[in-house]
Amino acid sequence: MDYIAIKTKLxxxxxxxxxxxxxxxxxxxxxxxxxxxxxxxxxxxxxxxSNLNRQFYFRDQLGEKKVLxxxxxxxxxxxxxxxxxxxxxxxxxxxxxxYHSCDVIVEAxxxxxxxxxxxxxxxxxxxxxSLVVGLGLAGFGQSNSIRxxxxxxxxxxxxxxxxxSTTWPPIAPRVGxxxxxxxxxxxxxxxxx
Amino acid sequence: MEITLNNRIEIIxxxxxxxxxxxxxxxxxxxxxxxxINGDFVKKENYEGxxxxxxxxxxxxxxxxxx
Lengths: 193, 67
Known about the structure:
The complex is a heterodimer of chains A (about 190) and B (about 70).
Chain A: H1 3-10, E1 14-18, H2 22-33, E2 38-43, H3 66-77, E3 82-87, H4 92-99, E4 104-107, H5 112-125, E5 130-134, E6 147-151, E7 154-158, H6 172-191
Parallel strand pairs in A: 1-2, 1-4, 2-3, 4-5, 5-7
Antiparallel strand pairs in A: 6-7
Chain B: E1 2-5, E2 8-11, E3 17-18, H1 19-25, E4 33-37, E5 40-42, E6 51-52, E7 57-62
Parallel strand pairs in B: 1-7
Antiparallel strand pairs in B: 1-2, 3-6, 4-5, 4-7
């Protein structure tokens, strides 16, 4: 498949991203660069200074809603991608209503409780949909520990071990590696359809 | 019985056991888990009712924060 064929095929698909932090903002940027058809992104948060070490935002966007700032940043890369942004906190019901039309859903939350909630929701409500989870990305180094693990239609990207803490902070390179591995997995799923 | 647990062969000296018993046996005390058996998602409320059988492929995923 040549690059034109790849781009043409990707225009037909909608990808949902749950969360617009370190995983979601960087995964979205990669998918916009390759020209995915449509992205549906939801997050309730505002940009804080501590986010700038890994998230796809800029200093002059501090205090702005992440979904609004991310829309601006993504449109500056590729205005042809359709963007549907939701400024809301996601729960079981919101995930069902917001992501029901997506071909693939990317889990891009920070907190473990939220990761469990979306995995439960998607595996129960949308068992036919592919779900790409980011799990284990804290610290630095150990590049080879970051892997893709597949179980049915659930794909796990990350080392599945390093949890963020004061001594294991989330930092740009490894967060970016997992976010891009999620985007790469989305492409693999869609281009093999 | 012999099962595959997280891609590794696990031999357990029982004919059958529930998901809850398996988690206790392996001392998987983590609060946030996702369990799948042969690709099927097992909800938390079914851990005591769902049995694991010889030959099953079981995935127990520990959810950790970071993103």
